[in-house]
Structure formats: C-alpha cells, structure tokens
Amino acid sequence: MATELKVDTDPAEVGFDARRLDRIDGHFARYVDDGLLPGYLAVVARRGKIAYVARRGHRDVEAGLPVEVDTRWRIFSMTKPVTSVAAMVLYEEGAFELTDPIARWLPEFAEPRVYVKGSALKPFTEPATEPIRVWHLLTHTAGLTYGFHHAHPVDAIYRANGFEWGTPPGADLAECTRRWAELPLVFQPGAEWNYSVATDVLGRLVEVVSGQPLDEFFAQRVFEPLGMGNTGFATDSTDKFAALYVPDPSTGKAVRNDSFGRSGLEKAACLSGGGGLVSTAADYHRFTQFLLNRGELDGVRLLGPRTVDLMTSNHLPGGVDLEAYGRPLFAEMPFHGFGFGLGFSVLTDRVKAKTLSSEGEFAWGGAASTAFWVDPAAEITALFFTQLLPSSTHPIRQHLRQLVYQAVVD
C-alpha cells in the first residue's frame, strides 16, 4: 500500500484555485518566521486526491532538522477517533451494544458515585442513578473528566491522584481505569458533555472485550488493514521524530520542552487510547480517506457505511450543540454550532459556527496543535501537523478552515 505523501492532482481538477491554496503557506509561514511555531505540515485533499501539501520550518529547531513529509508527530487526542473506530469494529462483530453498561466488562464501574457538593479534599457524593454505558464513553457524556481542566473540585481530585497531563508512573491502562472508577463523576451519566478520560476507558474496554493489549489490537485490526505502518504508541524512527514546544509566557515564541517531549519516544506503561499515538501525515491521511469513504480504503472494508454514518452524526440529546450541552471548558474544537458523535465533533450549524465548512463535517485535534477534518458534502479532507502545546495557543484550526474553503471555486 502506498504511504507516499505528495500532490497527485491538478488542484483545478478537484475544484480548487491553486493560487488561493498557496495562501495557506503564505499565512502559516508567518507563524514560523515569527518563531510562534517551530514548523508545520498541511495536507488538503478532495475526492480522494491530494491537491496541496505545504511544509515549512523545523521538526527540531535546535538540531536544524527540517519538517519532512515523513516526520513523526505526537498526535495526542487525534488518537481518540482511532480508539472509537477500534471499539466500533468490535461493535460490528456483536461484542456489545452501545447501550450496554460498561460494568459488564469493567466491574470497577459497577457502583459509580457522583459529586454533589464540597471541596476536593472533602467531596460529598451520591450514587449514580444511571449506569455508565458504552455510548457515554464514545460521546464524553459519562461524567468523567481531565485533571488539566482546573474548573471543578473533581478535576483537583484527579490531579491529586496523579492525573493531570499524564498518568501515575508505572500504572498500566488497567490500573489507571481502576483508579478512575474510584473517583467521583462530575455529573450523572448522560446528563452533560465533558471532555475527559472517557476514551482511555474505552480503550480499556477494547482490551477486555478483545482479549488483546490495545497496541496489538490497533496494529492488527486498524493499522495493518489501513496501511498505517508508521503509527503506534511510540515512534518507529527517533531521527524523524519532531521535538515538542510550548509558548514562552513573555514573548509567545515557541520554546522546546523536553519534559513533555519524552512522550512517544518509547511505549508508555499506560497505553492511552485518549492521546498516546505517534503518526505521520501520510498515515493519518489514509485514516481520513477511510472515513471519507464510509469505512473502506483500497478495497479493504473496516467498517460498514451505516456504522460510519452513525459515528459522524450528532448524538447530543435533542440535536443541540456543545455550547448548549457541554461544560464551557477546553476541548479540541469550538462549541458553537458543533455537536458530538461517537468520537468526533460534528458541524451542525455552519452559520452559528461562523465557518465556511459544510454541515456534517466531522473532526478532532490534538493537544500539540495538530488537527484534521473530513467534509463529506464537499469531499474535502484536511490535516495540520505541528508540535506546539497547548492547542489553544493560536487559532490555527479556524484559520486553516478559512484558507482551505476560500480556495474552493467549483
């Protein structure tokens, strides 16, 4: 299977104005020239053809190593759609129903308790009135959270237990899941949307149901069938691996951070289905084409079309958007005009979202400012890779959407 990443069509053949597409590099070159990004790689495709590839700057500024098409990137939360696909592979085999309580396989979640009031040191809780179900994990409505939110007493409880930007040293996914089950839920399951470790718990569910470690299941059931040979829980090529950067608080310029940057150099104890993968642009491009094709790529069908359609529909009750149903916290996408499916944000109202994209677009991003989206109506996929943590530093994703769609002329 081809893993090369290069333009393989005249942009005009797929409805793009080539000169307008060049605005993408013109715009993001300024980020690099001003030192706000170390480097970047963008890929735009339409109707299965790559119409534009742009790269600039360095994967490792200090070593003088340029961004290349085969650079390895930490994709952080762009792992979540992969985990969601893995779970739905098992769903299609009849392993579970979306409405099944997860305690059937993860008994540690048999009696979850929900925060009611109090402090992180002395929380008052009550029993959950609804079990956590599989679809709650897929939609981030389980009541779980992230320690890095810094917005709720339960977030502080997560941090006190070693869960902020990582997991306790030496704890594997089974142990982390057990510990999460002991912590209070932020709300009753299904009552709200909250970005959380739910996809990590989903990864543990995949392990238990399949009888395989998550890395083995991914490799055998997702990456090998889709030809994603350079994707895994650690880099397969340290010399191609991008360094990780954070903004300097005083200047905003990208500064190397090797403490965070150690992630992905070797396989972690906890195989994080929520954020642990390293990948290449070519590999993730194949993943987006599989999704655009509704579950099939190069004659290999991994999911049925109706399954992909279900995953990329808005599952928030009443069809509302994240602004109405979610907590106003950090997530990898805006809230206005976007709902949430089984592992993806879903654009429900392009006017409310103030975007040129099409309703039905589904997407997600990663903590180091990586992002992707798939627009079935316009048959467009787009990818952006860099390594700047956190992703809220610059409006990269909004700018990329503007620049891609202003170039559509058919």
UniProtKB/TrEMBL annotation:
UniProt KW keywords: Hydrolase
Highest taxon in the source lineage: Bacteria
Residue ranges of domain Beta-lactamase-related in the record: 25-402
Family matches, as InterPro entries: Beta-lactam-related, Beta-lactam/transpept-like, Diverse_Enzym_Activities
This protein's record includes keyword Zinc: no
MF GO annotations: hydrolase activity
SUPFAM superfamilies given in the database record: beta-lactamase/transpeptidase-like
Pfam families: Beta-lactamase
Protein's UniProt name: Serine hydrolase domain-containing protein
Taxonomic path: Bacteria, Bacillati, Actinomycetota, Actinomycetes, Pseudonocardiales
